[in-house]
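sanity check this chain:
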Amino acid sequence: MATPFDHPKGKSSLAASPEWAALLECSSPHPDLARLGNLLGEASAPELLDLAEAHGVVTLLAASLRHYDAELDPPGIAQKIRDTHRAQVLASLKMTAELFRLAGLFKESKLEVMLVKGPTLALRAYGDAGARQYGDLDFVLRQRDILRATELMTSAGYQPEISLDAIGAEKIPGQYMFVRVAAPLLVELHTERTMRYFPHGLPVEEFFARRQIVSLDGHEVPALSIEDELILICIHGAKHLWERLTLIADVAAFTARQTELNWERCFATARGVGAGRMLCTGLLLARNLLRAPLPPQILDRVQADSLAGRLATQIATWLPAAGDAPPGLLSRALYRLRMRGNTVLGLAYLLRLTFSPTQEDWSPADGQQTSGRLASMRRPRRLAKKYRGGYKT
C-alpha cells in the first residue's frame, strides 16, 4: 500500500487535495453528498483508497459510495473498495464471535471486565458493530485481577505476551496483550496501572460503578457508560496525537449519535482525571473538520479553551499524513505539555510518561531483562531514538 506522502502533488499539497477533502466528507456524520460527488469526480480513486486505508476509514468511504451513482475511474476501483470493506466486516464478525466466547468465560469465572472501543464503540457511534475498522478486542479490568485473567486467557487458547513471572514481579506493561494460537487474533487487557495516558490515573472503581450493558446481536456485554467512553476515546486520540482520521471520526459519530450524553458528567469526569483539554481538543477537531453537531453551550465551552483551539489547528497540519511523518521529539514533548494543561501539570505528566517503563523497556530487543529502575532510565533513551527527527523506527 502506498503511503499518503506518495501523493503525486507532493507532501505540502496533500491537505489541499480532492482526495483528502473527499475523505473528510465521507467521515462526517452528516456528509454533503452533492459536494462529495463533485470531489469524487476530481479525485484519483486509487489514491483515495490508499488514503482511506492509511486513516482506517475504508468502511466510511464504502458507506458513502453507496450514495454515489457514477463509476469511479479506473474501472473496478469501486469494487476493490467494497471488497476491502467486506473483508473488514468479516474480520469484525469473527472478532465479535470471539468476544461473546470470552465474555462468557469471564462471566462464568466471575471476573468483572468491561469492553472498550471495538464493537461497542462501532455500535454506539455508527449503529453497527461492523461499521468501524478495528484490529483487536480491548477489555478493562482491575489490576488485582490480571493474574487470574491471564490464566483464563491461556486456558482459552491464547499466548500471553507478558509472562506470569513478570506479572508476579509487578512489572506493568503498556497493555497485557494476548495472541490466539489457533488463528491470529489479538486481545488487550487494560487496567488502572497500564492506562498511563490518564493524567490522574484511571478511576477504575468509578468506571465500574457507572458501567452499562450493551446488546450486541442479542448478547449482553458490559461496557463503559457513554460519558466515560467519550472521555476514553478522547484520551486515546490524544495519546496517538490524533494522527489518523478514524480517531476523530469516532468522536464526531459518537457525539452525533449519542444525543442523551450527560455533558456535565463528561466535563466533570474529564476534570477529575485531568483530561479537560483532551476532551475539548477532541470535540473541536470533530466539529472543525467533520462538522460534528455540538449543543451551542458545549461549543461555546470548548471554544473558550484557546489553547485547545491552537492544538486542534496544529494537529490538522500533520493529520493528512496519517502518522507517516509525525512530529519530532521536541514537538511531541511540547504537545504533551500543552495537552495536559498548565506548565506545572504538563511537566509532571510529561516526566511520568517519560520515565514509566513498559515491556519495551524492561524486555528490550537484546533479551536482557532489566530491573524497574534501570528500565526507567532506559526509556528516555529509547524514546529519543524512536522519535528523533520525527520519523518512526
Summary: The mean pLDDT is 88. The longest strand covers residues 136-140.
